Amino acid sequence: MKCLTISLILVLSLFTQTSGFRCKMEPIVLVHGGAGDIPDSRVPLKIAGVKKAASLGYKILRNGGSVLDAVEEAVKSMEDDEAFNAGYGSVLNLDGEVEMDASIMIGANLNSGAVTVVKDIAHPITLARLVMEKTPHVLLAGVGANRFAKDQGVPTVPPGSLVSKYATEALEDFKEHGDNRTEIGDVGTVGAVAIDSKGRLAAATSTGGINGKMVGRSSDTSMIGSGTYADDDVGAVSTTGHGESIARYCLAHTIIYEIKNGSSANVATSKALKGMTAKLHNTAGAITISKSGGLGIDFTSRRMAWAYQIKDEIHFGIEHGQHTKEKAGN
Ligand code: GLY
C-alpha cells in the first residue's frame, strides 16, 4: 500500500513537472511606487497611488484580462500620477528634460520589450509592450524609440508637459547642493508583477531615472534581468532603487536565481537586496511573485510604497515592517 502511494505521488509530481499542468492559483497584482528616502509629506500620495494602481490592475484580471494587460494598466496609472518618478512627474536630466525608460516581460515565453531615453510619451510602458509585440527587438532607444512610437500611432505630448513643479525643484536642489537629498532626487521607479489563476506571470517597470542624470543615461529599468524579469517556471520581479547598482548586480535575475535554487519569493527578494547593498553600498527595493503565488516585498532604502489586491482585500505599506490591510473599494 505504502509503495503504491509513493508511486502515485511520484507519477503525479512527474506529470505536473512535464505537462505544464498547474494548480488553480489565486490571482494577484502587486505593485511598487519606488524605493528611496521618501519624505513624510509624500507618504500619503504614494500610498494612495499604489493602492489605486494595484486595484486597477486587479480589476483587469478579474474581468478576464491577461497578466500583461494587468501589469501595463497598473504601471500606466502610476505614470499618470505626479507622485511617482515615471511618466508625468519624472525626474529631470541635467538639461531639465524628462527622458524615460520602461520594460515589460511575459513569463510564458520570456518575450520582452523595453525602451530607453524616450521623450514626450505619456506611457513608456505601452511603448515597451509595442516593442515586444511589433518588432523583432527587445530594446529601442532615444530617437528610434520615438520614431517607432509615431509609426505605431502612440500619441506624443508637447515638449515639457511631463515636467512637474516638484521635479523642477528637485533638479534645482541637486544643482545647488550637488547631491540628491530628496526621495525624487534619490531614486524612484514604478513597477508591477501579476499572476493569474493559471499561474501565468508578467512583470513591468517604468522610470524617469535619477535626478540630474547625464543626458542620454539609460537605467536598469530598461534592462531585462536588472529592472524586470518574468518566467512562469520560476517567478516575476520588478525592481527599484539605485539603477547603476541594480544593473551591476542584475538584481531581478538574481532574485529569480535564488528562487530557482529553492528560496521562497520572500527569502530570495530579501537575500538579493541585502547582497546588493552589502556589495555596492547603494539601496534598492523589489517586488516578487513566485510561480506558486508566494510574495516577496522588501527594500534596503528608508521607504518603498507597495500594494497588492487579492480577492476583496488591499494590502499595502511603505515603512519597514508595515503591512496594512483594508477592504478594497469595489
Ligand atoms: N532604478 C531607476 C534608476 O536608477 O534609474
Automatic annotation (TrEMBL):
Indicate the transmembrane segments per the record: none
Question: Keywords, A to Z?
Answer: Autocatalytic cleavage, Hydrolase, Protease, Signal
- Site (Cleavage) found at G188, T189
Binding-site residues for substrate, renumbered to this chain: R217, S218, S219, D220, T240, G241, H242, G243
Q: Pfam families, from UniProt?
A: Asparaginase_2
Report the InterPro entries cross-referenced here: ASRGL1_meta (IPR033844), Ntn_hydrolases_N (IPR029055), Peptidase_T2 (IPR000246)
**SUPFAM superfamilies for the chain:** N-terminal nucleophile aminohydrolases (Ntn hydrolases) (SSF56235)
| GO terms for biological process, alphabetical | L-asparagine catabolic process via L-aspartate; proteolysis
According to its record, what are the GO cellular component terms? Answer: cytoplasm
Organism's domain of life? Eukaryota
Q: Which reaction does it catalyse?
A: Cleavage of a beta-linked Asp residue from the N-terminus of a polypeptide; L-asparagine + H2O = L-aspartate + NH4(+)
**Gene Ontology molecular function:** asparaginase activity; beta-aspartyl-peptidase activity
Signal peptide span per the entry?
A: 1-20
Q: Report the sequence similarity comment from the record.
A: Belongs to the Ntn-hydrolase family.
Protein name in UniProt: Uncharacterized protein
The organism of origin for this protein: Zophobas morio
Organism taxonomic ancestry: Eukaryota, Metazoa, Ecdysozoa, Arthropoda, Hexapoda
